[in-house]
Amino acid sequence: MTGAPRAVLGGGSGALGGALARALTDDGYDVKVIGRGGPDARWDDPDGILRLVDGAELVIGLAGKSVNARYTDANRDEILRSRVETTRALNEAIARAEHPPRVWMNASTATVYRYALDRAQTEQDADSDTGFSPDVGRNWEAELFRGDLPGTRRIALRTTIVLGRGPVGDLLFRLARLGIGGPQYDGWWFPHRRYRGIGPHPTEPRQSGIRSRGRQRFSWIHIDDFVGAVRFLRDHPEIDGPVNLAAPGAVENRELMAALRRTVGMPFGMPAWRFMLEPAMWVLRTESELVLKSRWVAPGVLTEAGYTFVHPELEEALRDIRGADQPKDSRSAGSSVG
Q1: What superfamily in CATH does domain 6-337 come from?
Q2: Disulfide: which of 3, 52, 118, 129 matches 134 by Cβ 3.0-4.6 Å?
Q3: Residue 115 per-residue DSSP state
Q4: Tell me, what DSSP letter sits at residue 5?
């Protein structure tokens, strides 16, 4: 084999894919992208995927419909299908490859962990959550780790909210700028079945409406550290299995909203109870669990292996994003869901 080493991105059209493509190109890789329309191979072309994967040094799977959507039956099915089928396509191509990649990292989600107010969850915690989002994560990872791929190290990137350009962060900053960026309080709401389990072995969601009083945890990672962690994992052959992509500085919801207000220069923020949030989320065509579920995730594997976070604290990360997005005083910020 001659020339630059090849890196294959399965789903590289979003913010994360773009950031990784630029970073890997800077590292000397010939970056190829698999997508619904290419450009280098399509998901409905298994032979085309095989041509890219065979002889590649690195494969990173990122494909999947955004979870920043209303969980209608059609969206629920597409969120699961888009993750499982694309991961299966990569698995099958690697299994067929004469020269399989040394490393295959695949996106996953930190929502597999239980709702936690007592302590952070690491890769050692086996008490997973139930319902729709955790079921998606379990089926996603099952496809990644299915079968025997002796020549390929596999890593599940259990990603929290990635702070960068994107709809979730744009929504949070918009709330802060409009003066309604106070803490969000969970509580009773009319029963519904949008969070019911999915997949071959669906699970029933646990109790909702927990009165967390704005203390639900918000776990996140700056996009620079997402890219940095991928590079770090690539270069540490002793690491495989699930890895949490989360900054060490998880905060409570009320701390998150206060940091957002300070970042945009808004001195006050009206709090929102669930009976106020749910109608707003219906209008925005998204789900309240994005801000009400307590995601308290710690980067156990990365920390133990010696990774140093560039942006370990939330407020500094928010200011960095706001300063980087636009010049002068017309700057904005965003985030992506991992």
Answers
A1: NAD(P)-binding Rossmann-like Domain (3.40.50.720)
A2: 129
A3: P
A4: P
